[in-house]
Design goal:
4-stranded antiparallel β-sheet, alpha+beta, about 650 residues, 5-stranded mixed β-sheet, globular, 28 strands
Length: about 650
């Protein structure tokens, strides 16, 4: 690798500008993204919280940065300084951002991004002056290690980018899940359209409402009004303990701070420090159902009172027991069935800015007047039977969210381990791909798996099932297909209705679709099937009719009717106009079904994002989204929803 200064591989390096706030022409009605350093840190930035106008662009020295510009934060006492992001659209920035437009003939921008991620502390150490700011000259002369081949740079970046893409898919799924839970809460407990005894929406179906003088609004008849303290059993104060084990400080824990609350909820990473507390303080350890509330901190635009909650799946994300810091407070509810009702009620108050009115200051730090708030603020308390229904619905949603967060945690740890190893050459791209084999999309049978696969095939195989698929396809569709069709047919049946006969099939994603090693072994055995060559490069599978009597007897046997009916059901689907027996359409059906199955959602955005990250290794396509456009994918999602 070569050592080379950033200025040698950049078309331009410049900082941004803040147009005069007093000039409304620079800001009002603006549509040009204007990024501040507080946004930097995530890999990609697509938009900004504030916008400037064309007038500002034309009448100041501010520059419009091209897409894929790298932006480095030069200011910031906290974590911000040294953070780097990729501006994915044409964007302007403030003066605290140093913006690098990388020359694509000299370096690959994503490689440079990942390398700079390894240099966070080194970049921060360039800081000078009382305020510890970076300057653009230091950044221009900052050297990075660069492979000579841009192809190698892209290969390194691709390994890391694939991990980030998987994390992003999970994040988008979680956003959809959270929207779903919030929608249910608003529908049931804000609009009061919870299910009545007949399963109809209460208020919309004429359920009786009564005016409550304390809340100054109507609430359902029979519902109570209480203070928040009526919901709470007890509290657990925070603890900071010691950084290292010493004396009686022997209990190893992870400490949740205010800065970790968003990450605990799935909005960013959790970087809770490891601490040691006194054994006598074990009662402070958090348990399932506990809520963590930030009571000190906040900012002029963010009140104290951010909240997180503990589930079994939350605890599974940590190696150590959890406590909260001294700037937080944990509370336990009297009835844990009210957990999610409490969470969404509290968050709704927080988002509405209610908690700004319950803050005091000590030595310049804002404190939530917690006891005062919970003993005086009145809320509606729903009946137990409604709350229990809500709990059971939302619990499943949050289990899925936490499962995704745990996976993200593992992916991020793997990425962060590989990042410096790839950059300094300790790990090659090939070795990194092997490390990723368990999270990448498998496409081949590895030699070390062959013995166990042979043993499995000797005890259970799918000769009759494969023969049935081939024979019925020929009879009903009057078509023959290749090996991939068999895999797709079986996985489609499993997606629509899992059958006991499939208990040994483990489908995996690969470049051309869904793949199962035991089916490959069955097809290779060719007990009831034959291969017919179409040309030098292609062959199809046909039924070997000398076995027709044996296979027909199997098809007609009573114990096999469930499987046979499912094959016929799939063949009927394949004949519908959206698919029309076309192999590409069957592949799209198979692809969307897998995405819906894995993501557990029918959200187009989540499904198409997964397709964008589903690599293909044939037909000249890079990924599934490149092969299948958004419109046909939307149609297939709707088609599947109709037939499920």
């Amino acid at each position: 690798m070569n050592r080379i200064a950033l200025k040698e591989i950049s078309k331009s390096i410049s900082s941004g500008l803040t147009p005069l706030r007093s000039n409304s022409k620079f800001w009002e009605g603006g549509n040009i993204p204007w990024v501040k350093t507080e946004q930097l840190g995530n890999k990609y930035i697509y938009d900004s919280n504030e916008k400037i106008t064309d007038y500002a662009l034309n009448n100041t020295t501010i520059k419009l940065n091209p897409s894929n510009t790298l932006s480095i934060a030069m200011y910031g006492e906290g974590k911000t300084r040294g953070s780097v992001s990729i501006l994915r659209t044409e964007t302007t920035t403030n003066q605290a951002c140093c913006n690098l437009s990388i020359d694509e003939e000299k370096a690959y921008y994503e490689y440079v991004y990942y390398f700079l991620k390894t240099q966070y502390e080194n970049l921060r150490n360039l800081s000078s002056g009382v305020r510890k700011n970076l300057n653009s000259n230091d950044i221009k002369n900052f050297e990075i290690s660069l492979p000579e081949s841009i192809k190698t740079q892209k290969q390194i970046a691709k390994v890391l980018s694939d991990l980030d893409a998987k994390i992003e898919v999970n994040n988008k799924i979680n956003q959809e899940l959270e929207k779903m839970a919030k929608t249910i809460y608003d529908y049931w407990f804000v609009q009061f359209d919870f299910p009545d005894p007949n399963g109809k929406p209460y208020k919309s179906s004429g359920g009786k409402m009564v005016y409550n003088q304390e809340l100054k609004c109507e609430i359902p008849e029979g519902w109570e009004v209480s203070t928040i303290s009526d919901w709470i059993e007890n509290g657990k104060n925070g603890d900071w303990g010691k950084e290292e084990e010493q004396g009686n400080y022997t209990e190893k824990v992870s400490c949740i701070r205010g800065a970790d609350i968003n990450g605990l909820n799935g909005k960013g990473e959790v970087k809770s420090p490891t601490r040691y507390i006194l054994e006598k303080n074990n009662h402070k350890i958090l348990e399932v159902g506990d809520l963590i509330i930030e009571i000190s901190g906040g900012s002029p635009t963010q009140s104290t009172g951010r909240l997180a909650f503990i589930t079994k799946e939350t605890l599974d994300r940590f190696e150590n027991p959890l406590i909260c810091s001294n700037f937080c407070k944990a509370v336990t509810l009297k009835d844990k069935m009210y957990l999610y009702n409490f969470v969404y009620k509290w968050n709704r108050m927080y988002d509405a800015g209610v908690l700004f009115g319950w803050e005091g200051k000590t030595s310049g730090i804002k404190n939530l007047l917690f006891e005062n708030f919970i003993t005086n603020f009145k809320v509606v308390k729903s009946p137990k039977e409604i709350v229990e229904q809500f709990y059971n619905k939302v619990k499943t949603i949050h289990q899925k969210k936490q499962k995704n967060l745990l996976e993200n945690q593992k992916l991020a740890a793997l990425r962060d381990w590989l990042l410096p190893m790839l950059m300094n050459g300790q790990v090659t791209v090939g070795e990194a791909k092997e490390e990723l084999r368990m999270v990448a999309e498998p496409g081949t049978i590895y030699e070390k798996d062959k013995v166990s696969l042979d043993n499995l095939y000797n005890s259970v195989n799918y000769d009759y099932e494969v023969a049935t698929v081939v024979l019925l396809t020929r009879q009903i569709l009057n078509r023959t297909f290749g090996k991939k069709y068999i895999h797709k047919m079986f996985s489609n049946i499993q997606f629509f209705e899992s059958l006991p006969v499939f208990e040994d099939l483990e489908f995996q994603e690969n470049g051309w679709g869904m793949y199962c090693p035991i089916l490959t072994k069955t097809i290779e055995n060719k007990r009831f099937i034959i291969f017919e060559d179409i040309n030098d490069d292609m062959s199809v599978i046909n039924f070997n009719y000398k076995h027709i009597k044996e296979v027909a007897n199997w098809i007609n046997a009573e114990e096999n009717q469930e499987f046979v009916s499912q094959v016929k059901h799939m063949l009927n689907i394949y004949q519908k106009s959206l698919i029309n027996k076309d192999m590409n359409r069957i592949e799209l059906l198979n692809t969307v079904l897998e995405c819906m199955n894995v993501l557990e959602t029918d959200s187009f955005d989540a499904i198409y994002t997964k397709m964008e990250n589903w690599e293909m290794r044939e037909e000249g396509y890079q990924n599934k989204a490149e092969k299948f456009n958004p419109e046909e994918t939307r149609l297939m999602i709707d088609f599947i929803k109709e037939i499920q």
